[in-house]
Structure formats: C-alpha cells, structure tokens
Design a protein that fits this description.
Length: about 280
C-alpha cells in the first residue's frame, strides 16, 4: 500500500518532470478507475499542468485553469513513466496521460481488484476521502494537540488509530508497524489506556518516522520507491527474522483484514498476539 513518504517522493518527481506540460492524450484502459463519470479524464485534453501536491495518500494534479485530476492510489495503485520496457510481471497500466513532450505518465494497479481511482474536480475536497482527511504528521504545523485529538478517549486499538485517515493522514499498515516498534508500544493497546508519557513517545515516533522516511525517499526514482521502502522496514514484513534491537523473533499478528508485524519482547512484554491462523 502506498503511504505518505513514497507518495511524497512520487509527487516531487512528477512536479519536476511534468509541471508546465500540456495534456495531449488520455487513454483510459480500465473504466472502473474513473470515479467522476460525468467528468472523464479526457476533458483535460489541452490543459497545462500547473502544480502537483499530496493529500494524505492521494496525488493532486492541478491544471492552470483550476481543474484538478486527483489520483487515489488505493491499496495497489502506483505510477510509472511510459517508454521503458516493463518487467514481465509489472502491474497492468489502467490509465495513460500523454503530454506535449517527454514520456507519458502511466497509472497502474497490482491488485486482484481495482483500487486505483481518478477524479476530475474543481476542488480536491470534492473527493470525499480527501475532505475527511485528518492532520498530516509530515506537515511542519502538525502539533501534539492534533495528535491528542486522534487518541483522546478512544476505545480503539492504537494501530487502528494510526491508520485511520480521518484522524491521521497518510499512514498505512507498514508505517504504523514501524511507528509502534519505534515507540515500543503494543499495536493492540487501546488508545484510551495510554499514559501521558506513552503518548509523548508515540507522538515523537509518529512524526519522526514519517518525516525521516520522506527525507530518505526524496530523490529516489519512482520505479525504485517500493523496493526502498521494503529495504528500510525494521519489523514490517520481517516475520521470523531477528529483531534489530533485542534479537528476539519478529511475529505476525492478525489485524482487521490484514496482517501486521511486531516484536513481542520490545512491544508486548513477551505476550504473543493472535496470529492470522488463530482467528
């Protein structure tokens, strides 16, 4: 799942390479990606791209006439440049945008179901997922008060709050695992049970993890961002590997419809959480 550090790096590369260019071709290869049927992406033919921005895990292409093409990457969506030979196992291209010069932008989806979505709007807030976004911990103005509003009195697991886009924008399964490991917190502890000192640590881990990851991904070509993300994970995706801190064993645990990873020694006092097969 694309998360804010990789999406920010994607946005910055798009900004460097296609801002100022004019849309000359739009090819929708999978009609289900278009979420604004009365306003298909083809209406942007002839429009000049003015800026590229990020809203949580969404990409916002703003054109000089005020229109926006919002790309919601979903669970498996991503982007690549056209013209290069794709690997045989590369995800299929669902939509292509060609410009007056340079390579086309190809939007892909690697899932068994289409999670990628595009919307043509006059204001990004017309996309409901963006309108509902909470504060972004990558924002320099993100505060402890913003963070406390997400957690105060919540009878919800800490990992779930971190991934709740309406409370904290941009964090998904991978970075929530990394944040919780960094803070040495159990992923299943209820938010309301955390002490002030524990919230202090979790706040620092959240802001630190996201801002440092954005800095680390900056400048990596978009084709290498997923691999860079995987390489930097300390617990996420490291099941049965040794913990980089204590040497214990990283374990899986069942979380909603997916699986997370944690270190029992560092995060749960040795308690083993229910594994996916135990549900």
């Amino acid at each position: 799942m694309p998360e804010s550090p990789e999406v920010q790096a994607l946005v910055e590369e798009l900004g460097e390479r296609i801002v100022g260019r004019v849309v000359r071709e739009v090819d929708v290869l999978e009609f289900r990606v278009v979420k604004t049927r009365p306003r298909p992406p083809g209406e942007l033919l002839g429009a000049r791209l003015a800026a590229v921005a990020r809203h949580g895990k969404h990409v916002d292409l703003r054109f000089d006439d005020g229109r926006h093409l919002v790309v919601s990457l979903g669970r498996h969506g991503w982007a690549r440049w056209g013209g290069a030979d794709a690997a045989t196992d590369a995800p299929p291209v669902l939509l292509t945008i060609g410009f007056d010069e340079g390579p086309a932008l190809e939007l892909t989806d690697a899932g068994g179901w289409v999670s990628l979505g595009v919307s043509v709007v006059d204001d990004p807030a017309e996309v409901s997922a963006i309108a509902k976004l909470g504060p972004d911990p990558a924002d320099p103005g993100y505060s402890r008060e913003d963070f406390d509003r997400a957690f105060a009195g919540r009878r919800k697991q800490t990992k779930a709050v971190l991934q709740e886009q309406e409370s904290i924008a941009g964090i998904g399964n991978a970075y929530s695992d990394e944040i919780l490991f960094r803070a040495r917190r159990s992923p299943v502890a209820h938010a309301a049970s955390l002490s002030g000192a524990e919230l202090d640590g979790l706040f620092e881990a959240t802001v630190g993890e996201i801002t440092e990851a954005i800095a680390a991904r900056r400048g990596i070509p978009i084709g290498g961002l997923k691999a860079a993300k995987v390489a930097e994970m300390r617990v996420h995706g490291r099941t049965w590997q040794p913990c980089p801190e204590c040497g214990g064993t990283i374990r899986d645990f069942a979380f909603a419809s997916t699986v997370g990873q944690y270190c029992p020694s560092c995060q749960t006092g040795g308690e083993l959480l229910p594994e996916p097969s135990q549900r």
